[in-house]
Amino acid sequence: MGFVKIIDQAVPNMPWQERPERAFELPLWRYSENPIVNRNPVIGVSRIFNSAVIAHNNAFSGVFRGEQTDGVPHIYWGESADGIHWEIDSKRIPFVNKQGEPFIPRYAYDPRLVKVDDVFYVIWCQDFYGASIGMAKSTDFKTFTRLENPFIPYNRNAVLFPRRINGNYMLLSRPSDSGHTPFGDIFVSESADMEFWGRHRHVMGKGTAWWESVKIGGGAAPIETSEGWLLFYHGVSNTCNGFVYSIGGAILDIDQPSIVKYRCKNFLLTPEEWYEERGFVPNVTFPCATIHDSDTGRIAIYYGAADTYVCLAFTTVDEVVSYIMQNSVLSAEDSEIGIR
Ligand code: BMA
User: Residue 184's closest CA among 172, 198, 194?
Assistant: First the structure.
């Protein structure tokens, strides 16, 4: 065991591959068999990417962004024995309202899957008279009951914390426009009941570093550690050929997550491999989930690549937290509580 402790369950059967021998600076390394979900994965779906998974009952379950053959994204359910090979339903998740009646979003994308208080929550982006956050809960992975949309448009990249903090649920989100948003900071909001959200705080702004100078957005559900909440997020830069999405890392205060304690000035992973540089949207690495093991400190990061594939990268909590700490640069906005 190293110096940082993951405060969560042990997942001894999590997917894992040792760090390659070859020398490189960054603390994340890719799974050698990427992508783990390829093109045309099920009938009616041409691409699956930006998807989230969870360890459950000695196996793994996931919500997948499936781009249908008509181009419209919806959310699909999948299961896996090893977290690498996935059986994905060919029918999208049949969301219902509180009365149990079908209540399907017009479109739905970039789902996250987080367990809080023994309930599984799916959070995604959907149409609510403009792009906004959709939510549903399930206790059996059969019935997915939609909850009130937490925010008015426009908003994306909502990520729940995996436990209440000071008694309240906490949700990261990134206010946006309804298009290819050219701005964006991460905020955190609180709720006592998962229905009414408030006490909004600014967490972090787009970075001063070039790789995250256009906008940022929450990625995987924060991991509770002895040093604070470990957050993998995406950062975007602009080029003459469009946006480039990289993976960044920060550590938020454990009791007041609007305060950033450490923020890495370097990306942790940026598009380099063919499956990240070539696809429906080139140059995108977009983290949406982790599986992590408190006994070994191992972390597997699930990320979408080039809006086309699902991929895996690995690290350990010691390696990634020390890299973030050693390369941390904080702005005044990062360190403050986030009220004006
Ligand atoms: C964002 C979202 C993501 C996507 C990214 C790159 O605005 O739509 O789903 O991966 O753009 O295209």
Answer: 172
> b/e map of 142-158 (b: 16 or more CB within 10 Å)?
eebbbbebbbebbbbbb
Q: For the segment 4-60, what is each residue's pLDDT rounded down to a tens digit? A: 999 999 999 999 999 998 878 999 999 999 999 999 999 999 999 999 999 999 999
Of the candidates 236, 300, 246, the one whose C-alpha atom is nearest the C-alpha of residue 268 is 246
Segments making up each domain of the chain, as ranges:
29-335
Ligand 1, atom nearest to 65 Cα: 9
Topology of the domain covering 29-335? Tachylectin-2; Chain A (2.115.10)
Find the mean pLDDT for residues 261-268. 98
Helix or strand run (H / E) with residue 326: helix 317-326
State pLDDT tens for residues 169-186: 999 999 999 899 999 999
State the CB neighbour count (10 A cutoff) for residue 102: 8
Cα–ligand 1 centroid distance for 237 (angstroms): 13
Which amino acids bring their CB within 6 angstroms of ligand 1? 50, 109-110, 180, 245, 281, 284, 286, 304, 307
246 C-alpha to ligand 1 centroid (Å): 12
Cis status of the peptide bond prior to 35, with omega within 30 of 0: yes
Closest residue to atom 9 of ligand 1, CA basis: 110
Considering only CA atoms, which residue is closest to atom 2 of ligand 1?
110
Gap between the Cα atoms of 207 and 216, Å rounded: 8
Tell me the torsion sign for CA atoms 337, 198, 111, 283.
Answer: negative
The structure's pTM equals: 0.98
Secondary structure (DSSP) of 211-279: GGSSEEEE-SPPEEETTEEEEEEEEEEEETTEEEEEEEEEEE-SS-TTSEEEEBSS-SB-S-SHHHHSS
